[in-house]
Amino acid sequence: MNAEYGKVYLVGAGPGDPELLTRKAVKILRMAEVVLYDDLVSSKILKLCRKKTELIYVGKRLGQHSCQQIDLNQKIADAALQYKTVIRLKGGDPSIFGRVGEEVEFLLNLGIECEIVAGITTASGAVASLGFPLTHREYSKEILYVTGHGKNGKNSQSFKNLSCEGKTLVVYMGLNSLKEIVDDLVESGNPESLPVGIVENATLAHQRIVTGNLGNIRVVAEKSEVSSPALLIIGDIIDYYLKMDSLRALIHRPYTFS
Ligand code: SAH
Q1: Which of 49, 94, 161, 179 is deepest in the core (most CB within 10 A)?
Q2: According to its UniProt record, in which pathway does this protein act (predicted)?
Q3: Which segments of the chain does DSSP mark as H helices, in order?
């Protein structure tokens, strides 16, 4: 390792709720001299850093993110030249659709020591906070994590020839391609009645889920004005969620005299 450089921690910030940070992430956040953070990292999490920590926003709003990764890699390396403890803070788990591989490779090529710190991915955080699982022996025995956003902004090919039977399909970055995803899944032979849930702002105070099926989810999403960040969850597990949700509603119904 190159002694001129500090160490870079590539840390998962979880889906939003600061309570879902790992203890390791909190420990490192408190040590950090500089934090380079993404769009989906909540301000409550950044507040855990010391006052003197330099916070650098490197999210997509800075520009065309497809051509920006190389500049970002360089920014992290520059920070490591200046500081001993650098955090690259990413939403969810850095290992899931987080480009952590590209960053690690760039840093290691320069001889910079780096360590990945796992986070809770949005899918796990979202379903837990809504009270249902990703797998269930009677509803779903497999989970498929897919991105709706392919490289260079093209739609992902992952939905072609894909049967969702017995599976939970979780789509990250899928809201903008909802139409194409639904069309591909129907074309692949999935029934229009296949349940779909869209979880908006998972684990945050303003979390919301809207549900429908392949046949109507676009209309439902438009009517309910669903916006980013949002995660698509497709499969029979959404039926299970609805079943549990109605049981919960009974428990929470205020007591009335008959
Ligand atoms: N590494 C992240 C995913 C990065 S891709 C993880 O493990 O969760 C970014 C996508 O994640 C968003 O487009 C959205 O689909 C999803 N996402 C992230 N945070 C979210 C949140 N709080 N609520 C809903 N979806 C979220």
Answers
A1: 94
A2: Porphyrin-containing compound metabolism; siroheme biosynthesis; precorrin-2 from uroporphyrinogen III: step 1/1
A3: 23-31, 43-46, 69-82, 100-109, 122-130, 178-187, 217-223, 237-252
